[in-house]
DNA sequence: GTTCTTACA
DNA sequence: TGTAAGTA
């Protein structure tokens, strides 16, 4: 199907569909004058992309995840699990950094309560 | 009329 | 992401 049809079928703008392709999340064949041609299961792929995006995954992670869906059953599960555990580790590292920043900020605030001059230091 | 690429807001 | 321009 053509990009306009896929757009109407998924409710995703043509602009965004091209962006997904640019990010390596969606693939398409080219025909005639270079027009994109999508497989019949493209709507399902787009739905999967939107689901993962809604789960807070970055386009980068989703891109790495796409090859997993080529397989099925346990293979798919192992592949996805591997990427998601990595994603979880990254997320926890960020939480740790934010927590440290929070502690530091609270410290500055607490000190300024006793001596406002501390704010300029 | 639809799609394409590039580029700017 | 939207939109404009100039094509195919």
Automatic annotation (TrEMBL):
Top-level taxon of the source organism: Bacteria
Positions of transmembrane segments: none
Keyword terms of this UniProt record: DNA-binding
PROSITE patterns per record: HTH_MERR_1, HTH_MERR_2
Domain HTH merR-type, first and last residues per copy: 1-68
Family annotation (InterPro entries): DNA-bd_dom_put_sf, MerR-type_HTH_dom, MerR_fam
Protein name according to UniProt: MerR family transcriptional regulator
Species: Cryptosporangium minutisporangium
